[in-house]
Write a structure and sequence with these properties.
Protein name (chains A, B): Transcriptional regulator, GntR family
InterPro entries (chains A, B): GntR_C, TF_FadR/GntR_C, Tscrpt_reg_HTH_GntR, WH-like_DNA-bd_sf, WH_DNA-bd_sf
Strand content of chain A: under 5%
Helix content of chain A: 55-70%
Structural class of chain A: mainly alpha
Number of helices of chain A: 12
Keywords (chains A, B): DNA-binding, Transcription, Transcription regulation
Strand order of the largest sheet of chain A: 1-3-2
Pfam family, one (chains A, B): FCD
Order of helices and strands of chain A: HHHEHHEEHHHHHHH
Distance between the termini of chain A: 35 Å
Oligomer: homodimer
CATH architecture of the largest domain in chain A: Up-down Bundle
Organism (chains A, B): Albimonas donghaensis
DNA sequence: AATCGACAAACTGCATGCAGGAAAATTCGC
DNA sequence: GCGAATTTTCCTGCATGCAGTTTGTCGATT
């Protein structure tokens, strides 16, 4: 996901954007979804910011229709919130919401990693090991964003391995979790440096090895850790508001 | 959900349909979603049937845009499947898919009922008890469809009570489960008459009473039952194909 | 008569225009 | 000069038109 063009490709001219889409075989709506998701997670679109179809459409250089579809999906995923007639906004960051996200993740994540461990193909196992290795390399990198993007691919890989498309609703939960983590990155470093990445590495390896029970235990422990972190930073989140 | 008009309201004329929408305060896309979901669950749209934007738009008397949005949501939910460039079809019914659906339900459902039991308001408790009573009344009714529609409201109520919108991805799983059940209704009667309804009643009452652990146990037992049923009818599902 | 190729119908993806309604800016009254 | 009403602007929801592609059909050729 090379994120298209950081500069403003304002041209809705078909010539200008067709070179991007046919090769990928991806619809403009899918592109818009991933693009806006990324903007939200990286907080280029700040929490609470207004999001309009027209604005996004101009920003990424496509028409309103695919943008509209992407925005509605994002709203359905809870990444954007839509007040009845007042347009859409980026979901605010707060502890209560994050705890709900983690509650839903806890419901899904154990099943996800267990089934992935059970059903992954040899090729998927290899890619999981690669992913774990990549995490290891990023473990102490200064910029967190590459690890974030890598994390997204990790989840996609787990979903492929689990061979159950009905678990895919966990994807937006990860997006919200990544944003929460990024928003408190400075604190995170002091809270427990590298712990999250370590969990990713160990889960990836356990799944690759087919260790179902171990992967499940790790996922549980991971969520315990993430929840503790949320409560930790959430305290002065509430205090500062 | 009075399902609008069973006859064909072919008129895209605003006058003809505005009486339906403004009172509900619901968008045409939402209406189309529920309408098509119902068509699929009741198998008025048969498994494997082709679904086109234009066809549905004519059928329910709105333009293509809201229909398109609804169809894309339904595809995202796995109720419709979209072959790359060949349009959308209603998902086929098969045992393997149903087991995946139940796997995902198992992940979510325990959390759903436990949290609903924990967080339901007194008003929600009252409505849950009403729902259970209604199920009791329908227990031995000949026509299964009313119970099916009631079931949908039951889930909505559980979701409200659980106070966690991120668990809402269970809704389409129920839709697929209801269709599976309906498709095998004749066999169901012999398999274990009324058992499903009994579970609904008991779960509703446990949640209303705030019995978190009991509700969770019931949900687990319910899924065991439903899965056994799926495997039972799935055997000759495979044999007949 | 069967197969292959060309034509035609249909459908999706996308852009755009229009109407209704809310929010914001401006102007008018005090 | 400040508050309130009005106008302006923006935004969403929906319909519709257009282009590219695919599917199904009919006719021509072997």
């Amino acid at each position: 996901m090379p994120l298209a063009d950081p500069a403003a490709p304002e041209t809705p001219d078909p010539e200008a954007l067709t070179p991007g889409t046919p090769p990928t075989g991806e619809s403009l709506a899918d592109l818009a979804y991933r693009r806006v998701e990324d903007l939200v997670v990286t907080m280029e679109l700040a929490p609470g910011a207004r999001v309009s179809e027209h604005g996004i459409a101009e920003r990424i250089g496509v028409g309103r229709t695919p943008v509209r579809e992407a925005l509605q999906r994002l709203a359905g995923d809870g990444i954007l919130v839509t007040r009845p007639r007042r347009g859409m906004r980026v979901r605010e960051i707060d502890l209560a919401t994050q705890l709900r996200v983690l509650e839903a993740r806890r419901a899904l994540e154990g099943t996800l990693v267990r089934r992935a461990a059970l059903r992954r193909s040899p090729e998927q196992a290899a890619r999981l090991r690669e992913t774990a290795a990549a995490f290891r390399r990023m473990r102490d990198a200064p910029d967190p964003v590459p690890a974030l993007r890598h994390d997204r691919r990790f989840v996609d890989l787990l979903l492929d391995s689990a061979d159950n498309p009905f678990l895919a609703s966990i994807i937006p939960l990860y997006a919200l979790s990544r944003r929460f983590w990024l928003a408190h990155y400075a604190r995170q470093v002091r809270f427990e440096p590298g712990a999250i990445t370590d969990f990713h590495i160990r889960i990836g390896e356990a799944v690759a090895a087919g260790e179902e029970a171990e992967a499940g235990r790790l996922a549980d422990a991971f969520l315990d850790h993430v929840e503790a972190f949320a409560r930790f930073v959430g305290l002065d989140l509430a205090a500062s508001s």
